[in-house]
Amino acid sequence: MGYGSKSVAKQNVVKVKREDYPKKLKRKQMLSAIVIRSYAKNKNFLTDSLVKKLKEHSKNHTNKHMKSMVYKMEKMGMSFSKAHSETMKKYGK
Q1: Region label for 26, one of left (φ > 0), alpha (ψ between -120 and 50) or beta (otherwise)
Q2: Whole domain around residue 82: which residue ranges?
Q3: What are the CA-CA distances from residue 56 to residues 36, 59, 66, 72, 88 (Å)?
Q4: Which of 79, 27, 86 lies closest to 58, judged by CA?
Q5: Is 85 a domain residue?
Q6: CA–CA distance from 7 to each of 10, 80, 93 (Å)?
Q7: Domain annotation covers residue 4
Q8: Of 36, 41, 52, 71, which is least packed with CB atoms within 10 Å of its CB?
Q9: For residue 25, pLDDT beyond 80
Q10: Is the residue at 43 inside a domain?
Q11: How many domains does the chain have?
Q12: How distant, in Å, are the alpha carbons of 34, 41, 55 from that of 80?
């Protein structure tokens, strides 16, 4: 051994094959209009256009987020964007 040299033991290195990588996750499915309407206590509260907007919105958010938004719009009279920002503060995505 020379000056400043260190003996290094060989480590067992395992190579991961490409097919062992996790598969790409599928995109989250939209909630159906029936499910979205079921979140509201008053079934006539949600208009068709609002249900369509919430349905698209549900792709990116959890069920808990969606329930909270519908509740805030129905019971507290908030707008879509106001209900969304309040829900993001409380529950996040």
Answers
A1: beta
A2: 27-90
A3: 11, 6, 11, 18, 17
A4: 27
A5: yes
A6: 10, 65, 51
A7: no
A8: 41
A9: no
A10: yes
A11: 1
A12: 19, 17, 13
- The pair of structure tokens assigned to 5 is 């040299």
Global pTM value: 0.65
Average pLDDT, the chain: 80
Q: Is the pLDDT of residue 89 over 80?
A: yes
Q: In angstroms, rounded to a whole number, what is the distance separating the alpha carbons of residues 51 and 73?
A: 12
**Contact present, 64 and 91 (Cβ < 8 Å):** yes
Residue 5 domain-assigned (yes or no): no
Cβ atoms within 10 Å of 91's Cβ, excluding its own: 15
More confident residue, 69 or 23: 69
Q: What is the mean pLDDT of residues 49-64?
A: 89
Instruction: Return the closest-CA partner of residue 61 out of 88, 93, 25, 90.
Output: 93
